[in-house]
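Bumping with the actual sequence this time:
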Amino acid sequence: MKIGILGSGIVGQTLANGFIKHNYDIMIGTSNPSKLSEWKKKAGNKASIGSFEKTARFGQIVVLAVKGSAAKEALKIAGVENLNGKIIIDVTNPISDEKPVNGVLKFFTSFEKSLMEELQTEFPKANFVKAFNSIGNAFMVNPEFNGIKPTMFICGNVDNAKKEVSKILNKFGFEVEDMGKVEAARAIEPLCMLWCIPGLLKNEWGHAFKLLKK
């Protein structure tokens, strides 16, 4: 399967390396190809670099791994016609540029409407699935927590899309919890706030969420 990754930062590169590890063909979309020259040397022939538009056309599944405030524009540049009918793994969080308060990040969205809902409304024919937003990039690919699989919370409107993303998450070492339709992103996106508090207050970043059940 071909994976197109929109975003060439550390998150995009980390996920790209994970997909390569699990034998996917990937393309990273970037406006600055030179930024990825060293990464490309290490990634080898299962990886390529392209524009956002070319990457969106390439990917059978598209990963949105840009800054939350740039998400809509990135998808517009990628081209709505290249996204229609495709699964988009939405890794974004609506983090504001304002400073955190006592370790709590600020969002530019409200608790009545998530960023993912805004993206789904803007691109109604794409199948968004929220994932990878509630853990740091160091633990996005087969994290090791003393043999315990961390939980990855997902949501989205299309069940088949969530099933495909769940297969990827299982390969990447997560236990998947489907929280339902797109509105559940109102609860999943703020997990980013909670995850970051120990890091921002105490420089402790080595943790993940686990849902326990009876």
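The tokens above came from a reply further down the thread. The longest strand covers residues 2-6.
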